Amino acid sequence: MLEHLNELSRESGHPNEGDDVGRGMLSDAVGITNHFAAISPDICERAIARLAIDKRDVTTIPNGVDTSLFQPLDWSTDEKWRFLQKILVEEPKGWDESGVPGFFLNDPAATERLKDESGSLKPLMIFVGRFLDFKRVPLLLRAVSRVNQSFDSSDDPPFNLLVWGGMPGEWEGEHPHTVARSLDLPNVFFCGWLPHDVLAQGLNLADVFVAPSYNEPFGQVYIEAMATGVPVIATRSGGPLDFVVETGAHANGWFCEVDDLDSLAATLQRALADETERKRRGTNALALVRAEYDWKEIAGRYTDVYRHVMR
To answer: Whole-angstrom Cα distance, residue 190 to residue 212?
Structure first.
């Protein structure tokens, strides 16, 4: 919050009176706090630098995942297809700049592009999140357009992107649906904001999860995807630096550079090119989350901190 307030002050040329109130409240809170929990090493380092707190007074404890909810479901192609038809055609919640959920309907004929000529589903990438500036959804759509151009223009692209989320009526900068329409992307579908239990099922549709966010504080949805056995694509910034492994035997995803269209497009192509590698990284992702990010494990770490503070 402090970083954002400082950024706004620089843009306007002077601090806002309300911003000073926010800074004061944070300063007061820091002054009466004995110990701090940071959700990622990145947040820990930034807190020490900007709040002038002693590193001995900060413990890094990540968010956790309910692995009984977010888990692989081993769906058949028919089960995935029925689920896609439900969220895209039968009960659409996608919205454009009108802000009205379900305002635009997905043409049933258009959803046939989700399949290849044999009737199998093409590789599906999923983005999940709000349409806020730091999520960089327009950049992702431009990267999809770049990848599309690498294929024969006479055929439909051999992959699809499902954009899941965006609180109705809330967006910053360019609206993703407007960007997708301007780029004429036949392989991008919007399903809107859906309940968390539906997301837990829907992540099973994905072959890859992708979110090119800038300085994601932690990245809850990345580990929710990983708990479903899905490898992830993130930028080399923020929370995902702590749990995404790019190379080696334990690789569970890929990194691209921040705000770099070429890097993001190339990373999408790498992930799409090798089904075996996607599955290997997805298996590794699942193993990591179950071992280190299950809420039962995280709760134990908080218990240790409470005991430390109470001594």
So the answer is: 17
Question: Is residue 40 within 8 Å of 62, Cβ to Cβ?
Answer: yes
Q: Distance (Å, rounded) from C-alpha 229 to C-alpha 133? A: 28
pLDDT tens track for 130-160: 999 999 999 999 999 999 999 987 788 999 9
Can you give the pLDDT at residue 24? Answer: 85
DSSP the chain: -HHHHHHHHHHHTS--HHHHHHHHHHHHHHHT-S-EEESSHHHHHHHHHHH---GGGEEE----B-TTTS------HHHHHHHHHIIIIIS-----TT--TT-SPPPHHHHGGGB-TTSPBPPEEEEEE-B-GGG-HHHHHHHHHHHHTTS-TTS--S-EEEEEE--TT-B-SS-HHHHHHHHT-TTEEEEE---HHHHHHHGGG-SEEE---SS-SS-HHHHHHHHTT--EEEESSSGGGGT---SSTT--EEEE-TT-HHHHHHHHHHHHH-HHHHHHHHHHHHHHHHHHTBHHHHHHHHHHHHHHHH-
Right CATH for 77-292 from 3.30.56.10, 1.10.260.40, 3.40.50.2000, 3.10.330.20:
3.40.50.2000
Q: Are 160 and 122 spatial neighbours (Cβ–Cβ below 8 Å)?
A: yes
- The string of pLDDT tens digits covering residues 37-62 is 999 999 999 999 988 899 999 999 99
Confidence of residue 12 (pLDDT cuts 50, 70, 90): low
* Domain assignments of the chain as residue spans, ordered by start: 2-60, 77-292
